[in-house]
Amino acid sequence: MKWIAIAGSWRHTNSEIENQVREEARSLFALGDGLVSGGALGVDFFATDEALQVGVDANRLKIIIPSTFEIYSAHYFYRASEGVITHEQAESLISQLETVRSIGCLIEGDTQIIDKVAYFNRITQIIDLADELIAFHVNTTEGTQDTINKARAKGIEVKVFSYAIKIDRTKPCP
C-alpha cells in the first residue's frame, strides 16, 4: 500500500476542483492505497469527505492538524468570527474532524499557535508520510507550492492540477 497525499487550496475552490479531488480520492482507494491530508477546508475537506463516504478502512486514512483538536477547533471558530470563513464552514470542518478523530485517523500536533509556520510544518509532516502527492494548485498559492516543492525534494511522484479562479474579495472564502 502506498500513501498518497492530497493537498491544495482551502480558500478558493469550485465544483470542478471538488469533482476532480473526489475522483482522485476514489481512484486511490480503489487501488488499495491510503490517503494522507491536512484537516482544512477546500481540497483537504473534499478528499476526507470522500474517504468517509466510501467507508475507507481506518488504516488507510491519516489526517494531520498542526495542534490539538481543541486548539484547532477554536482557531476555526475564531476565523469565522473574523469573517474569513463562514460559521457553517467552521462547523462542517470541526464535525468532519470529530468523525475522523473518533475512528482513530486524526494526527494532532503540539503547536499552540495556528499560523503560517504551523501550517507549513504540517505540510512537512504530510510529505514525510507520503509516497506520492496529488496537488490542486489554485491561483499559484504559496502553501500548495511549498507542498509541491517538499514532495519534489523528497523525490516522490508529484501530480499537479492547476487552476485559476477569479476571487471576489467582498465575500468569505467559499
Write a compact overview of the structure shown:
By secondary structure, the protein is of the alpha/beta class.
Distance between the termini: 34 Å
Write down the CATH class. Answer: Alpha Beta
Helices, by number, come to 6
The unreliable regions are none
How many domain regions?
A: 1
Fold-level CATH name? Rossmann fold
Output the radius of gyration.
15 Å
Shape: globular
Number of strands: 6
The main sheet orders its strands as 4-3-2-1-5-6
Range of helix content:
40-55%
Structural class: alpha/beta
The H/E string reads: EHEHEHHEHEHE
Strand content: 15-25%
CATH architecture term: 3-Layer(aba) Sandwich
Largest sheet: 6 strands, parallel
Organism: Pseudanabaena yagii GIHE-NHR1
InterPro entries: DrpA_SLOG (IPR057666)
Domain Smf/DprA SLOG: 3-166
Protein name: Smf/DprA SLOG domain-containing protein
Note down, in words, how this protein is organized.
The chain has one domain (3-163): Rossmann fold. It has a six-stranded parallel β-sheet, with helices on both faces. The chain has helices spanning 15-30, 43-54, 69-82, 87-102, 116-129, 142-154; strands at 3-8, 34-38, 61-65, 106-108, 132-138, 157-163. It has 174 residues and is α/β, with parallel strands linked by helices. Helix content is 49%, strand content 19%. Helix 1 links the parallel strand 1 (3-8) and strand 2 (34-38).
Task: Output the keywords.
alpha/beta, Rossmann fold, about 170 residues, six-stranded parallel β-sheet, about 50% helix
